[in-house]
Amino acid sequence: MIKVGIAGGASEAAGEVIRILTSHPDVELMWIYEPELEGTPVADLHRGLRGDIYMRFTDKPAVDDADVIFLCYSTPEESGSFIEAFEVPGSMRLIDFSDRFIADAFASHPSPDAAAKPGEWVYGLPELMRKPLVRGATRAVVPSPIASAITIGLLPLAKAGMLTSPLTIAATVSAAEGAAGETVALIDHEALDHCALALGTLLPEGASTAPDTRIIITSGGWQRGITATAFFPSPAPLAEIATIYNDFFDDHNFTFVIDELPVIADVAGTNKTLIHLDEVNGMTTVTVVFDDTLKGSAGNAVHLMNLIFGLQERVGLTLKASPGA
Questions:
Q1: How many Å apart are CA 277 and CA 279, to the nearest integer?
Q2: Are 209 and 203 spatial neighbours (Cβ–Cβ below 8 Å)?
Q3: Could you check whether the bond before residue 25 is cis, i.e. omega within 30 degrees of 0?
Q4: Contact 57, 32 (CB under 8 A)
Q5: What is the pLDDT of residues 2-50, one digit of tens each?
Q6: What pLDDT does residue 302 have?
Q7: Could you say which DSSP state residue 279 is in?
Q8: In this model, does residue 323 exceed pLDDT 60?
Q9: Neighbours of 310 (CB within 10 A)
């Protein structure tokens, strides 16, 4: 059994991780750290867990009792503080939800084809970094949902050296990011920097960096889910592009290329990504849809754990779709 500790136990990400892990056949939850809630039943805060978990939050995490720690913090400072305060050993497996170690991940492990060294941070996008994740990785960074959606949608073209400029991305995110219809971000967004780094690991030698990119993000008014559409001058006929995408994702367990436009209800409550390709007036469009709280966050984190520990990717993640989520 994999012994798991969770830090930042009050966060939404932690709640989703706990919900998944309570049904994971190869996991034993050891402790859930949240000092301000010490002694409070976890199910009192995270709804839907009554009868599934009887643990209480603790202010004294037994780091040595864990095989892996999920750092479920949203800010880099919190992740770094936990590691320092509790003297987390360099041999400990860590999965971090903040962006504290993203720069380290790309600096120390810029290739998706090389094995990872123990203690080395790896960018936690399985569609890109599955090889190093199963070949020695001990620490992984969970990308932001919007960065994951954009990057997954463009990986096949990056590998083929077929990304063209200008690239425009229109994304719609859950209500937590703003009121329905509200513009969340225009033109510049930090997620694009992470996308450029990720895509750059696949560009053929001598190819230019990621294309000139613009982004607009709006709130969709729903409770969970992301849909992102990228459009750019067509680099090849649609049939050729479709073959590139199908070949790239053929052996991936959670990402599928489909013939019709996907909607949030198709992926809500699952760890799936659905991709649709089209061409209109000389412009290729790539539409990506997934559940941001699962595939874009907690589900991806558990997927990373499965890979790091050599488990089959889908273990604990064959989640039933819940269109009303």
A1: 7
A2: yes
A3: no
A4: yes
A5: 999 999 999 999 999 999 999 999 999 999 999 999 999 999 999 999 9
A6: 98
A7: E
A8: no
A9: 7
Name the DSSP letter for residue 56.
B
Distant-in-sequence, close-in-space partners of 281: CB < 8 Å, separation ≥ 6 = none
pLDDT in tens, 141-172: 999 999 999 999 999 999 998 988 899 999 98
pLDDT at 222: 76
Assign residue 240 a region: left if phi > 0, alpha if psi is -120 to 50, beta otherwise? alpha
Chain centre distance of CA 67: 21
Q: CA 107, CA 68: separation in Å to the nearest integer?
A: 23
Residue 3: the pLDDT is: 98
d(C-alpha 281, C-alpha 268), whole Å? 32
Q: SS3 for 184?
A: strand
The residue ranking higher by pLDDT, 266 or 190, is: 266
Strand (E) positions, 125-237?
Answer: 139-141, 167-173, 183-186, 213-219, 226-233
CA atoms within 13 A on the CB side of 260: 4
- Which of 5, 9, 51, 3 has the alpha carbon at shortest distance from 27? 3
Task: Tell me the whole-structure pTM to 2 decimals.
Answer: 0.94
Q: In what order do the strands lie in the sheet with 213-219?
A: 183-186, 213-219, 167-173, 226-233, 283-290, 273-280, 255-258
Edge to edge, what strands does the sheet with 139-141 contain? 27-33, 2-7, 68-71, 93-96, 139-141, 121-123
Rounded Cα distance between 131 and 193, Å, is 23
CA distance linking residue 28 with residue 26, whole number of Å: 7
The H or E element that residue 287 is part of is strand 283-290
**Token couple for 205:** 């030698």
